[in-house]
């Protein structure tokens, strides 16, 4: 074992000497590895950061959460013209599912309405996302309240003029005052503030609830009506834990088909969208992006590999005399082979380290410019970068190392002289 440490130490010294004595040549040879590792890890870090941000924005919802709508959240074989004829899910269907669907923890009904302005004593906050939902939405989304409460079932059913504000909205309107019990104006009428959500933090996709306000859906239904296509109604269902997923979805489909009076040969005129399917779709997309990035970056690594191989061939030629002396003194072929192989690997790792440092610097700069969106250089990506560097060094150095180990000692010493 000690001999391997000795070989590694000597190889490291030879690699450092190569860097010192032939700075330009070594720099150009390592540039390909550095660029290749930089490209690969930059792509992996960017995709990982994007995936983390998307899933973070969905983290408040359980992956088993189901959304019934007239549109599909993923690819579908149903032609567009037929999908456009599908009816919206209705409030009556929400009530029916709530009454009849077994193994269900909560069912909520929501409308996607346009952003509005909220005012309080002359102060106005513009572009507030309005969450028109039923009371069960609080449990499905696992909302966290900083103060007050969410509206209850009676307020939800009657469409009471009550409102729960996002953290940012409450701060902008009340500037440190306690908003609970205060009256704000929305849709030309007064709403009583009954709750304020905890600060969530901004999202690159604009999905933060800090800039949102929640009101009973039945109040919004009176304003917009039930036949307004722009409101995009949806029924949100949260099943109980440990429910058989396939059987539960089949039960939902059968339930709604019977309620709508669909015939056995009719296709579903609605979509059962499960959040797990959306996250799987995201995983698929990010996986494809990773593969594309690896393929593109692989060309840079190929150039880097040729650069390492070139510098190793030159190193073998420059040290032919030394190799001859080592072999004449009893050094075995394996010793010579490992010496040059370790040197190639060390050179490649040095190039990879430079690439990783560049990625790390860029992630810090990018994160400072994007605010709450954080670029992540994970330990897994660092390990991947170093592993790829070592593999490139191994592949690039194997042929020069073999050629060095097979040199005849007499010829090697004579060539040196």
From TrEMBL:
Q: Which InterPro entries match?
A: ABC3_permease_C, MacB_PCD, Macrolide_Exporter_MacB
* Annotated transmembrane regions: 27-47, 291-314, 335-362, 382-404
Any idea which UniProt keywords this protein has? Cell membrane, Membrane, Transmembrane, Transmembrane helix
Q: Tell me the ranges covered by the ABC3 transporter permease C-terminal domain, including all copies.
A: 295-409
Instruction: Look up the signal peptide feature and give its range.
Output: none
Q: What is its main location?
A: membrane
Query: Where in the cell?
Result: Cell membrane
The record, for Pfam families, names: FtsX, MacB_PCD
Q: Which membrane topology term applies here?
A: Multi-pass membrane protein
What sequence ranges are listed for the domain MacB-like periplasmic core?
26-254
Give the family this protein belongs to, as stated in its UniProt record: Belongs to the ABC-4 integral membrane protein family.
Q: What is this protein called?
A: ABC transport system permease protein
Q: Which organism is it from?
A: Mesonia maritima
């Amino acid at each position: 074992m000690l001999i391997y440490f000795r070989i590694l130490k000597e190889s490291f010294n030879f690699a450092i000497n190569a860097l010192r004595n032939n700075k330009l040549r070594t720099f150009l040879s390592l540039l390909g590895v550095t660029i290749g590792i930089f490209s690969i890890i930059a792509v992996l870090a960017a995709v990982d950061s994007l995936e983390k941000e998307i899933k973070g924005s969905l983290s408040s919802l359980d992956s088993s959460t189901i959304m019934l709508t007239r549109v599909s959240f993923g690819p579908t074989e149903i032609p567009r013209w037929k999908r456009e004829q599908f009816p919206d899910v209705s409030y009556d269907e929400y009530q029916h599912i709530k009454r009849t669907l077994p193994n269900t923890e909560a069912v909520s009904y929501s409308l996607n309405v346009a952003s509005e302005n909220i005012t309080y004593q002359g102060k106005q906050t513009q572009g507030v996302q309005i969450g028109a939902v039923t009371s069960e939405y609080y449990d499905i989304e696992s909302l966290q309240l900083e103060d007050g409460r969410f509206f209850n079932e009676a307020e939800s059913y009657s469409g009471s003029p009550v409102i729960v504000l996002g953290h940012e909205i409450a701060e902008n309107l009340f500037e440190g005052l306690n908003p609970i019990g205060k009256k704000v104006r929305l849709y030309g009428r007064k709403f009583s503030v009954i709750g304020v959500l905890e600060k969530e933090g901004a999202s690159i996709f604009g999905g933060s609830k800090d800039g949102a306000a929640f009101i009973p859906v039945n109040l919004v239904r009176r304003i917009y009506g039930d036949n307004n296509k722009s409101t995009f109604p949806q029924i949100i269902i949260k099943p109980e834990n440990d429910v058989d997923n396939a059987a539960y979805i089949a039960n939902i489909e059968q339930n709604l088909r019977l309620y709508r009076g669909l015939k056995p040969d009719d296709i579903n005129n609605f979509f059962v969208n499960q959040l797990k399917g959306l996250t799987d779709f995201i995983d698929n997309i990010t996986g494809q992006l990773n593969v594309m990035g690896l393929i593109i970056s692989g060309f840079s690594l190929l150039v880097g590999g040729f650069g390492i191989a070139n510098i190793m061939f030159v190193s073998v030629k420059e040290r032919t005399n030394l190799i001859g002396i080592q072999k004449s003194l009893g050094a075995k072929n394996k010793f010579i082979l490992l010496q040059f192989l370790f040197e190639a690997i060390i050179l490649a790792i040095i190039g990879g380290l430079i690439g990783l440092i560049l990625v790390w610097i860029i992630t810090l700069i990018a994160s400072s410019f994007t605010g709450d969106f954080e670029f992540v250089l994970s330990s897994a990506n660092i390990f991947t970068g170093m592993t790829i560097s070592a593999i490139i060094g191994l592949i690039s150095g194997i042929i020069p190392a073999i050629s060095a180990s097979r040199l005849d000692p007499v010829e090697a010493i004579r060539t040196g002289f």
